[in-house]
């Protein structure tokens, strides 16, 4: 059974940092692109970043580029998102999601349960 | 303001067929495949349709997707109370170089 379990979400002050993790199991992790997708309270979905199967390519939405860093450890079946210089507008539930296929963006077939990041003083 | 435009709400009676639209442009829907997601209250989204009209295994055929030009649609037939959820479309955008989502459509079963 495919499982994605996020952790690391918490309350953090504006300007602070946080590291989110996603533990993957039930599939060959190194064979899939992985993404982070977020959802602000009461709002819609926003794709944040993705990373290629071997970690050689990474893409970000403009609003987080330079502040967030996506990474993966295929030996540990783990995906991470380092969040720096956090702003109130980064408050959201952060989901990790799997992308089959070559492109890494044509669909997200499995999602984790999400972890809540709250940026507030 | 989302790049892909969806109606904020839709509704239908049990047993009816309802359609949710998703309007984009040549840089997204017009050039790339569309996927659709269902988000039940308090849960993570789930993939319903990909490649414009393909269903993952386990998704019933009451859910169907279509695309024409720069617009896509999700149809749900035989509406049931458990279909009350938010529905999102998504596609890659060549101008923004990101995956873009629609703003979501809240489906109410009357």
Précis, in short:
Chain A is mainly beta. Chain A is 0% helix and 49% strand. The interface between A and B is medium-sized, with 21 and 25 residues.
Overview of the structural elements:
The termini of chain A are far apart. Chain A is mainly β. Chain A has no helices and 11 strands. By secondary structure, chain B is mainly β. Chain B is 0% helix and 45% strand. Chain B has no helices and 9 strands. In chain B, the strands form 2 sheets. In chain B, strands 1, 3, 4, 7, 8 and 9 form a 6-stranded mixed β-sheet that branches. In chain B, strands 2-6-5 form a 3-stranded antiparallel β-sheet, with no helix packed on it. Chain B is globular. The relative contact order of chain B is 0.33. The mean pLDDT of chain B is 96. The chains are: A mainly beta (121), B mainly beta (110). The interface between A and B is medium-sized, with 21 and 25 residues.
Q: What keywords describe this structure?
A:
heterodimer; A: 121 residues; mainly beta; seven-stranded mixed β-sheet; four-stranded antiparallel β-sheet; 0% helix; B: 110 residues; six-stranded mixed β-sheet
What is the secondary structure topology, with strand pairs?
The complex is a heterodimer of chains A (121) and B (110).
Chain A lengths: L2 E5 L3 E2 L5 E8 L7 E7 L5 E7 L6 E3 L7 E6 L4 E6 L8 E8 L10 E2 L3 E5 L2
Parallel strand pairs in A: 2-11
Antiparallel strand pairs in A: 1-3, 3-8, 4-5, 4-9, 5-6, 7-8, 9-10, 9-11
Chain B lengths: L8 E4 L5 E6 L11 E5 L6 E4 L13 E6 L2 E6 L8 E9 L4 E4 L3 E5 L1
Parallel strand pairs in B: 1-9
Antiparallel strand pairs in B: 2-6, 3-4, 3-7, 5-6, 7-8, 7-9
- Helical amount of chain A: under 10%
**Tell me about the biggest sheet of chain B?**
6 strands, mixed
Instruction: Flag low-confidence runs of chain B.
Output: none
Mean pLDDT of chain A: 96
Overall geometry of chain A: globular
Which secondary-structure class do the elements of chain B indicate? mainly beta
In whole angstroms, the N-to-C terminal distance of chain A is: 40 Å
> Largest sheet of chain A, described in full?
7 strands, mixed
* Quaternary organisation of the protein chains: heterodimer
What coarse outline of chain B follows from CA principal-axis ratios?
globular
